[in-house]
Records
---
Amino acid sequence: MTCLTITRRGFLAAASATLCAPALLKAETRWPLTVTDAVGRTVTIPKKPKSIILGTGFNLVALSLIHPDPVSLLAGWATDMKTDNPFIYDAFRGKFPTLNEVPLVSNGLADGMNFEAALSLEADLAVMGMWQAEGEQGKRAIDYLQLTGVPVIVVDFNVDPLKSTARDIRLLGRILECDQQAEDYAQFFEKRVQRIRAGATGKAEDGPLVLMDAFPSPTRGSWAYGQTSLGELIALAGGRNIADKNLPPQGGPVTAEYLIAAEPDVYIATGSPGGTYTAFSIGPGVDPAEARRSLEETVKAPTLAPLKAVREGNVHGMWNFFNAVPLNVLAAEAVASWVRPDLFGDLDPTGSLAEINERFAAVPFEGAYWTSLTG
C-alpha cells in the first residue's frame, strides 16, 4: 500500500511539473536559485523544492493559483486555514485527499512551530507569512530551519498587499518553475489594481469617510483597520479612513464615542465563516442570504446603529481573510465600488472571481466573499 501511495504521489508531481513548465527561465540553469524574499533576506535554494513546509496554511491558496496540484508539494503545514475556514480545507481535501495525511507542524499562530516535527520531515523549503516573520516566534522558527539546512522564504499577502502580492506570486512562480502561470496571475492582479489607482488619483481629498471594522462584536466593540493590510484599500479607492490620524498603521480598537464623533459615511465589516470571531458570517461556503442577514444583525449593535453610514444604509461586509491570501484584489474591487460608486460603479468583483476560478484556481473558491445592505 505504501509503495502504491508513493507511486501515485510521484506520478502527480511529475504531471504537475509538466503542466507547470517554466517559460521565463530554463529549469536546467536556475538551480541553485538565489532570491530576495519579502523582508529583504537573500535566500539560496539548492534545488527545485518538492517537499515544502507552510508556516501558515493560508499560503496553500497562493500555491493553488499557480500550481495544478499544490498538495503534492507539501511536507508539512499549519492548521490555521483548517480551523479558521474549514470549508476551504474541505474543498482542497475533496480534490486532493492526501491533504488529510500532510503532517501538522504549527497552528499558524504566535506560539510558534513544533521544531521536532518540522525537523523530521526533511523538507527542502519552508514558506512563511510576513506577519509570522515579524514576531519573535517566527524569527526563531526561521533561524532554526535555516540552521537545520532548510531554506526559508517569507511572502507578504497581508501587510503591504498592493505592493507585494504580484511580486511574491512571481517569486513563488520562479521557485516552483511555474513562471508563466505566476506571471499571468501577477498581471491579472496589477491590471485591476492599476485601474482603481488611476481612477481615484487626485480625488481622495473630498472622498467619503470610511470605517473598516474587523470582526465587530457587541461585547468587544470595534477594531478599525488602519493604513496597512485591508485598510490600504480605502485610500486606493479614493476614500478617507477614520483611523488614519489617531491610530497606529495597523489600526486598533475604537470606542463608541470615537465612532460617533467620526461619523463615517461608509461602514465595512469584516468577518469569517460561521461567525467564529463575530456574529457576522461571511466567506468560503457561506450562503449569500446568511451573509446579508448576519450583517444586518451586526449593525443593530448599540455602538453601530447610530452611525451615519448605518442610518443611511451604506453598509457592507467582506471576508476578513482577504488579508492573508492573494485573492485580495477582489477585496480591492469590492471596496472601490462601495467607497466611490461614482468612480467605480462598473467594477465587477464577481466576474473577477469567476475568471480566477476559470484561469487559475486549482480548487474553485465558492461562497459569499462580500455582501451589501444597499442592494
Note: The domain at 203-372 is CATH 3.40.50.1980 (Rossmann fold).
---
Amino acid sequence: MGRATGDERGTTERVLTLLGLLQQRQVWTGPELADRLGVTPRTIRRDVERLRTLGYPVHAGQGVGGGYRLGPGRALPPLLLDDEEAIATAVSLLAGAGGAVAGAADAALRALAKLDRVLPTRLRHDVRALAGSVESFGGGRPPVDPEALMTLARACRDEVEAGFDYPSGSGVRRRRVEPYRLVASDRRWYLLAYDLDRADWRSFRVDRMTGVSARTWRFRPRPAPDAATHVQEGVASRVYPHRARFLVHAPADTVRAQIPASAAVVRPRDGERCEVVSGAGSLDFVLMHVLLLGHDFEVLDPPELRGRCRALAERLRAAGSVTAPGPAQP
C-alpha cells in the first residue's frame, strides 16, 4: 500500500471534523458547515456522502429549518472529543468506577479502560489532578486509588503479569499474579487473579493493595472460573469459619432484594424457592439473619444447625410465655 497523499490526509481530517461538528449540534445548514470548514457547500455534500458510505446516518432536510442532522444508527459511532470533553468524561468515569453511580461501576471501568488506550499523555496529568481534587461523603466503597484501578484494568486487558503488596496473617507480602477480571460488588472492588506463588485462583480486595504495578511479561490465559460467581462465593462464605446452606420458600429475586450480594449467594431452585449460601463467625449469626428474612426455610447444611434451630425456638417460646410484671404496689 502506498502512503496517503496530502490531499487524502486533508480530506480525511476534514471529514472527521465534519463528524465532530454533527455530534455537537442537532442541525447544521450547508452554508454553516462550509463556513466552519472553509470549503464550498458542494464539498460539504461530498463529505456527507463519504460519511454515509462509512455507515453514519446523516439526514438532510430541505426548506426552513432544514439542514444536516446525524441520526441514530444501529451501532454507536466513534465519538470525537476535544481535550476538555475527554478530561470531563474520564473524571466522570472515575467517579462511576468509585461507586458514585449505583450499578454503573463495572461499565464505567470498561469505558475508562477504552478511553485510557487513546487518551493523550498530556491529558493524563490533568485527569489525575482533577480526580484527586474530588471528594465524596456518605456510604459507599472504601476509597480506591484510581491509578491502581487503572493499572489493574490495563493488565487484565493486555494480559500481562501484575504485582502488589497485600496483607495476610503473617504480615504484608508481595503477590505475583496473572490478573483476569476486576469485579465490583455493592461495597468493594475485587481482582480475580491466578496467584503464581500459590498456584491457584484468588480474589483480592483492591482497597487493601499497595505498590500496584504491571510487568511487560505477557501470559497465556488459562481456563478461569466465572469471575463474579467466584468472588461473590468467596466474599459471602468461603472466608468465614462457618458456612451454611438454606432452602428458602420465596423466589430468588425476592430474597436477593433483601440480602446484599456480599452477604450471601442466592441460587434459584424453582419459581417459588431458592437456595441461600452464607457464612459467618458463628452459626447462630447466620441463622438469625435467615430467620429475619420473614420466609419459611429449611436447613440443608450443616446438620448441627438443625439442633441450633430447635434450641433457638425453645428460647423464643420461653421468652414469649413470660408474664409481664404488673405495676409496683406502694
Note: Residues 9-70 form a domain with the Arc Repressor Mutant, subunit A fold (CATH 1.10.10.10).
---
Amino acid sequence: MAGGTWLGLETARRGIMVHRQALDITGHNLANASTPGYSRQEAVIRATDPYTVPGINSSCTPGQFGTGSMVDYIRRIKDEYLDNNVRMATADSGYWEDQISIFQQAEACFAEPATNGISKQIVELFKGWMDLNNYPTDLGVKATVVETASNLAVMLSSVYKQLDTIETGVLDVDAGVVKGGMMKDQVDQINSIITQINDLTNSIKKIYVVGQQPNDLLDKRDALLEQLSHYGPVQVTDGFNNGKPNGELTLAFYGTEVLNSSSGVCLNDLELEVNAGGEIIVNSTSSGEIVNLSEKLDNQEFSGSLVGLVNARQKLIDEQDKLNTLAEAIRDEMNTILSASGTGYETFLYTGNLENGDFKVNPDLFKNPDKLDGAIAHAAAEIRDKDIASLGNSTFSEYYGFIVTDVGNAAKNANSMAANQKAIKTQITALRDSVSGVSTDEELTKMMQFQYGWQASARMITVVDEMLDVIINRMGV
C-alpha cells in the first residue's frame, strides 16, 4: 500500500512554505545587515513526522513515507560568552573614555607654555624684585612689582575657579546634596535603562509562554545591557525552565542585584549621595546602598564610567589643592620678607587663599606702591631659587611645573588607556560579530538555495497535478 492520493501535494506544499519562511528570514537578515546589535537568525528546519502505512506483513510503526518538512523555530545565532566579554570590555573602556574630555579641559586651563601664563608671571615677579633691588626708590619699578604680583594672584585664582567649574560639572554637590553634574545625569540614564530592560523582559517572557522566539526583543535587551555596562560592570543570568530559556533575567550592577524578573525586583530608583566622609555612593531609595564608588576607586577597581568620573573629580580636587598650596607658599614667603621692612605693612602682602576666593595683593599696598620698601628687594628676589618646605623642597617655578606636568600626564594617560581599551573592545566585538553578525555573501548564497528549493517544491506540485490529471481526466478515454 502507499500513502494517500494527496500526500505528494501536501509534502510539496510544506516544502514551499518552509522555503518561503526561510527566504523571509534571509531577507530579514539582509535588511538588518548594518543594524547595530542585530544578531543573525536562521530557520531551524526539521522533517515532519513520517506517514505510517500499515499492511498485512508490516507493523504500525512510522518511518515508511516522509511527509515533508517544517520550520521548527527561528534560532538567534549568539555566543553568550562573547557577549559577556564585550560587556566587560565596555566597562573597562568606559572608565577611561569620559575622563579624556575632563582632563583636556583641565589642561587647557593652564595654557602652558604660554607667553603670559602663570609660569611667565612667576618669572616676571622675581624679575621685578631684581629690578627694584637695582633701583630701590624708583616708584615705577615698585608699581611694576605690585602689578605683576596682582596679575599672578588673578591668574592663580582664575585657574583655580576654572578647575572648580569643571569639577562641579562632574558632580555638583551642596552640603552633601547632589544637585547635578555628569555623574547625576549618568545615574538618571542608568535608571532609564533598567526600566527599559525590565519592560522588555516582561514582553519577552510573554512571547516565550506562547512558544515563540522573541529574537528581535532579545537583541534590544542585549543592546541595553551593553549600554548599561558603559557605566559599570554588569553580571547577567538568564532564566531557564526545564532546560529551555524562559526570558527571565537577573541583573547585577557593580555586584549588586538591581533586577530580578522572577522575584519582581527592579531597582530603577538609584540616586547619588556624598556621605559625611566625602565618599560618593549610589543608593536605591527602596533598598539602600548599591555601591560605594569611592571605595571601588580606592581598591583600584577601574571599571565603569562612574568610577572613572570619581577618579577625574578627585584629580581635579587634588590639582586645586596644589594650586592653593603654591599660592599660600608665595603669600607666606612674601609676607615674611615684607614684615621685616618696618613700613607698617608687616603682614599679608597677599591675603586669604584661592579656596576662599580672596587671594590678592594687599589693597592698601596696591593703592600706594611707594610704600614698598626697596631695601627688601634683594631678599625677595632670592626667594626665586629657595627650596620651600611646604612645596616638597621645590622652588615656586618647579612646583608649578609639577602641577602642569601632572595635569598633562593625566590627560595623556587617559587618552592612551582609552585608546588601548577601545582596541581591545573592538577586537572582542569583531569576534562576536563574526559569530552573530550578518554576512551578506552568506545570506545571498542561502537566498539562492531557498529559492531553488521553493522552485523545486513548486515543480513537484505541478508534476503531481499532471499525474492526477491523467488519472482523473484521461484514463478510460
Note: The radius of gyration is 37 Å.
---
Amino acid sequence: MQPISQVEGSFVDVDGRYVIVVGRFNHHVVDSLVEGAVDSLVRHGVDEEHIDIVHAPGAWELPLAVKRVLQVARPEAVVALGAVIRGGTPHFEHVAGECNSALSRLQLEFDTPVANGVLTVNSIEQAIERAGTKAGNKGTEAAMAAMEMVSLLRRFAAAEEDAR
C-alpha cells in the first residue's frame, strides 16, 4: 500500500493583501478581535500596508461587505469579525445563522479564503472570554486560519503549475 501524501498550509508563504471586515455592533468586544487579527498577520510577516479594515454596521451586514471586498479588492483572504450575543428573542439565531452561511458561500463562490471570526455566544461574558481572555482571541485564530488557507491554496496552485 502506498502512503497517503499530506498537504497542508504553513505560516511562511502568507504575504499579500488581507482585508478584515468588521461588524461594529458590540464594538467593545469586536475591537479586541481586530487587534488580535492585525497582530497575528503582522507577526507572520504580512506588511501592515497590505492589511485593510472595512467596517460594517453589524454581523447581518458582513456578508454583503465581504462580497464587495472580494469583487473589488481581490485580496488573498478576508477575515470576518463580529459578535452576535444571544438575547431574549430569536433574532440571534437568524443573524448568526445567515451570517455564517453567507460567509461560507462567499468563500466558495470567489475561491478565496473567508475566515469566520464572528462570535456567536450566549452572554457578554462568553464574548469577552473569546476576545482575548480565558478562551484566547478568536480574531487571532481567524487570521491564522486565513494565512494557513492562503498558503495551502498556493501549494495547490504550485502543484497545478508543476503538472502542466
Note: The mean pLDDT is 91.
